[in-house]
Amino acid sequence: MEKALAGAMRRYASSVSVVSCRDRDGNCYAVTATAVSSVSFDPPSMLVCLNRKTALADVLVKVEEFAINFLNSNQVAVSNDCAGGRKAGERVEAENWNMEGDGTPTLKGAQAVILCRRTENHTYGSHEIFIGDVVDVEIEEKVDPLIYLNGQYGTFSPFPAAE
After folding, report:
1. Rounded to an integer, what distance in angstroms lies between the CA atom of residue 14 and that of residue 150?
2. Is 48 in a helix, a strand, or coil?
3. Which of 17, 75, 104, 144 is an S-S bond match for 71, by CB 3.0 to 4.6 Å?
4. Which residues of 120-157 are buried (b: 16+ CB within 10 A; e: fewer)?
5. Using CA atoms, how far apart are residues 105 and 97, in angstroms rounded to an integer?
6. CA–CA distance, 72 with 145 (Å, rounded to integer)
7. What's the mean pLDDT in 82-103?
8. pLDDT tens digit sequence for 33-56
């Protein structure tokens, strides 16, 4: 069943996100995630599912805030870095991130950034499920998301408008 589900999910196109946070010691973390969704507009809230083996899953259980950064099509390198291309402690650097004060780091140039206050988390199987109430939203004017489908990155191309 796992193999069949994995095959089905490879056919589900999704926007690529990087979830980021800062722990109580000031260390910054980020991990690539495609299991991200809105939960509700009243209250405004988001859901993130992370494999419990990731360093960020352990950290998110202990922090109050996290950010969901929807990647732009030109941020493939950031996605790869945060998907394991770089060590967990080396993924968030000032050149790509807004790291003002002791707040949650957010990705520069992201399609959108949704800052959340963690309200719930649940363990289910191999994953930790986080729900956060939306605290702030930043939106990039140009819509050009990074999409992930069948193990590859791509972009969105709308159909021509019908006349």
Report:
1. 10
2. strand
3. 75
4. eeeeeeebbbbbbbbeeeeeeeeeebbbbeeeeeeeee
5. 6
6. 5
7. 84
8. 989 999 999 999 999 999 999 888
